[in-house]
Amino acid sequence: xxxxxxxxxxxxFGVVEAxxxxxxTLQQQDVLYCLGDIVHNDAEVERLxxxxxxxxxxxxxxxMKDTTVLLRAHGEPPSTYEYAxxxxxxxxxATCPVVLKxxxxxxxxxxxxxxxxxxxxxYGKKNHAEVNGLVGQINGKAIVIENVDExxxxxxxxxxxxxxxxxxxxxxxxxxxxxxKRRAVNVPLKIHDxxxxxxxxxxxxxxxxxxxxxxxxxxxGQKSSNGKMLYHICQSVNPNSxxxxxxxxxxxxxITDVDSVGICGATSTPKNLLEEVAEALRQLAFKKFK
Length: 290
Ligand code: SF4
What we know:
- This protein has helices at 13-26, 42-50, 58-61, 78-86, 97-111, 129-136, 170-183, 197-200, 202-211, 225-237, 271-289; strands spanning 2-5, 32-35, 53-56, 67-71, 89-93, 119-123, 142-145, 160-164, 189-191, 215-219, 241-244, 260-265.
- It is an alpha/beta fold.
- The mean pLDDT is 94.
- Iron/sulfur cluster binds at residues 12-15, 73, 96, 98-99, 166-167, 196, 198-199, 267.
- The site of iron/sulfur cluster (SF4) has 14 residues, from helix 1, helix 5 and helix 8.
């Protein structure tokens, strides 16, 4: 039985850095609050919780004062920083540099719009933490579009600037951009491709990887957007693809008729979890061929 872990899977650098900052801080203090899940992976959140990380939501954050809070890679709107400043909350800002740069572009683009007539369109998931952070840069004045079917929310008599949530898929972004070009015939249109290549580059790689094995085991937390998207790509290439979040979900029947298994995951899946899955499969394979 061939069992191989996809070398391109595992945390992206934004998540690695957020976890590094959390662990570094927890060496100096017993408890650290984190605004939202530091990563969309329960196993990793539990590991850090054992070290003292406490995940809080926005409702609780806006009642706190005189403490330290970590901001995760997704980023936050300016109102979060303002509340922290007024309430003596020390922020450890782990916003990914790619997201920070996107926030600045949206803010500066809006500030330089003298006509104040331009519509900022964000291709993203409504109420996703990163999208809330982006929309907050311009006081909520952005149109969030999840797919091309929602294009009628845009007024095609006014200028348009299009951006993307960093973890959205490039294909969907191009479909939307092409439709905007087709319909915005007499108005200025600027298209900013802000899809993060840490995710986008995994798509062709995971396609090739999925095609090489009799069975694909995709490991991800249920809440990860890029996990769902990458899993669907695995499935489209290899219908014998299974989604799991922990080793307990592995079914030994899956390896009955296959002689090769590929293991891959999302940008929020820890490498050690992929290795644990590989080890569990090796033991099942050993049982099978004994
Ligand atoms: S996916 Fe890209 S933008 Fe998002 S945290 Fe990772 S590196 Fe940063």
